[in-house]
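Long-time lurker. I teach an intro course on protein structure, and each term I like to show students one example going from raw sequence to a predicted 3D structure in token notation. This year I'd like something fresh instead of my usual example. Would anyone be willing to generate the tokens for the chain below so I can use it in lecture? Attribution to the forum is fine with me.
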Amino acid sequence: MTGESVGGAGENAVSGTGSEARLLVPALVFIALVVAAVGSLGAPLITSVATSFDVSLDSAQWTLTVTLLSGAVATPVLGRLGAGPHRRATILVTLAVVVTGSALTVLPLPFAWLLAGRAAQGVGLGLTALMMGVARDHLPAERSGGVIALISVVSIIGVGVGYPLAALLTELGGVRAAYGLGLVVTAAALLTAWRSVPHAPEGRSAHVDVPGAVVLAAALLLVLFLAGERDLWSRHLAVAAGLAVVAMVLLCVWVVVELRSTTPLVDVRAVRHPAVAGANVATFVGGIGMYLLLTLVTRYAQTPHDAGYGFGLTTFVAGLVLIPFSVLGFVAGKLTPRLRTRIADPVLLAGSAVVVGGGFALFAAARSNLAELFVAMGVLGFGVGGFSAAMPGVILAVTPKSETSSAMSVNYVVRSVGYSLGSAIGGLILAAGTGPGRLFPDDSAYTTAALIGIGAMAITTLTSLALASRRSSETP
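-- Reply from a regular --
Happy to contribute to a lecture. Here you go:
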């Protein structure tokens, strides 16, 4: 990459020296953290939104669901644009959309405008892969790997940062105050990107496959809709199953379209590489388990004592339970790049999945006091942090530098679907454990969900070990 022009920050960013390069790393990490935290704002505010806008809880749930939907749909398109010559413009325009959406959530407008604003905020979730592409292009190889791992980690632990802050602001100033935080930090992220993000290297080209984008968007909308609408599965199983079949057909059609396209949205042939396919399978199943435990712990902590278990915590105090998750996730993210010099990435994935499974086991066996919940969340955070930090190394080891954003955007979509299914599965298990006339599920339902999570992490571990075995057999 020597001699590339990156518009003002060019040579310094490439060589890793100068003030521009020193500012680039914190800028990339900050932007990834902001879009993740803003995307998670909907989770702790659902009840407050329902009360403030006089809508049902199911309707308020869409302030979170619509963000995941728009993020999943926008991510592959942004990934392809990020592989081309206009990556900087793509990042700035996307952040401008996020800032506009943040303004809509703050202004005194009807509920429909709040949903529109949350959808616009969700578009920013696709920027994580672009931040990785910038790091890989404009940092020395010995430094870019650690930065990419850190970006991957903060995109996860941003949930633990945004949840308690949003809950506290809601208690102090109402739901608009919480969304106001989103407006402030997204505006700061836009300014940071304008000052720090360099232009893409010369010689790149990117054409968006519009038919492929439309078909993929339709399929993802159906998949995430089905994951979010738990009542549809319990009350209208035939309709839900039919829509699931339609979604699978659309995904098959999309694969055919991509294979025939000269400028595919996603290079399906590259995604079929055993290392990439295995990594995405591990991400999908692992994502189900990881988000399942997040769903269980926060709900358990807020359950009142009258149910026979739980701690009756407020939304803000329950959010503090996520602090060990974020702190130890960050610690694991900083340790993993050092371990990668001695341990292969697939082995690190397997080890991290075992740690996450340990978090499930702790929650299943001991949750009678808050200290035990804090320990379980800390173990989960350490495992998730290590998993997230090791995952990019598995994929990028067989991915051309120019395809970094596109390859990682696919992994993000897979992760998003896994998270959504994890949340839905947790809800279905707890709903099944709620007896007639009861508001809260039996305590045993949480144990059942935890055991299912352990099973998911066992599958993730075996998949990762299979990747490690394949890599060992291919290495002379």
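Some talking points for your students: Residues 1-18 have pLDDT under 50 and may be disordered. Residues 267-476 form a domain with the Growth Hormone; Chain: A; fold (CATH 1.20.1250.20).
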